[in-house]
Every structure is written in C-alpha cells, then in structure tokens.
Design brief:
By secondary structure, the protein is an all-alpha fold. It has one domain. The relative contact order is 0.15.
Length: 194
Amino acid sequence: MKHKFHGEEGQAYGRVLELILDDYEGQSELVEKLDNDDERLIHLGRWLETLGKAVMIHEHGVGGQRQAARADLARGLAGLASLAFSWLELGDVPAVEEVYGERVRQRALFLMGGIHFDCASPKVNNRRKYRVLFEEAGEVAKALDLVERQDTPWNRHQLRAELVQVAAVAVAWLESLTQSQISDLKSQDGKARA
C-alpha cells in the first residue's frame, strides 16, 4: 500500500516509513505471537537497550565502531518503530496516518515554542533523543498499568496514544539521519539478505 505525504515533512516521513516497513512483517509476526502487552513492552525495552548501546558507541567509539554504531542506531530505530506500528495495528486500525499526524503535531509544537527541540534535527545529540524516546516508552508502561487496573476504552485510548508518540519520536530520530545514511543502511541490509 502506497501512502502519499506532501511537503518537506511528508517526504521525510515517507522516506523513513519505507525503512520501517522493511522490518514490519517480522515485527508484526512477533507482536502477534506474544501473549500480552507486558511481553510487547519487554520487547520495546530490548529495542531501547540496543539503541542505548548504539548511542554510547557512536558517542565514544572510534572510526569503524562509530560507523557500525550509526547503522545499528538506524536499524534499532526502524525496529522499534516497526514494533510500535505492529502493536498499534493489532486492533486492525492502520497507524501510518496517525503517526504522521503526531509528527506534524510535534513539529508544530516545536515551531510554536511548546517543546525546546525536535528529534528530527541532526543538531540535537543522540543522548537527548534517547532520553525523549525512553520517556515516551515509560509513558507506555504507565498506560499499561492503567489498563491493568481498569481495562476501559479510555485507558486503551491512552495506551494507543503513547504508542503513537513512541513511533513518532523514533520516526523523527530516523528523519534526522541523512538520506545517504538511510541509503547505506538499505544497501547493507540488501547485501545481508542476498
């Protein structure tokens, strides 16, 4: 299914969406096999761990380590976003437009001064972006607690909203990568699959 997004923001979203959807089928199968939302949250945490390691190596590594960490960072972000999309779509509600709407909202908040930086900016360091993503994942855990205490439509809506924000932050971070970095990653992944 092809999606059309307009303007510079839409083009950036479409570019990273391709990368995310490359991993979607595998993540979707995993999400469906997992018994419950707690197990899905644990997998979200595993992606966060992968990203944390990549951020540290990218910040403190040398030469080839940094380049490998950059690729691991992109793969980790795509995997985490793909997991969030898959989790969101368990209820048969497509998430692509919803996540795009959240990206547009985040960008507008930044432009109006409601938030101090945009994770799509290459000028924002990876440690700061990691903290934002980690905080959003914590909000997913908090929403799961609410659902566990009382499984209401409102609490399920809150869980969905938090998952959309996790996906949108991962997408924004991916948008901060240059087109050449994304192309290099696709090329490396293509060689690995061949």
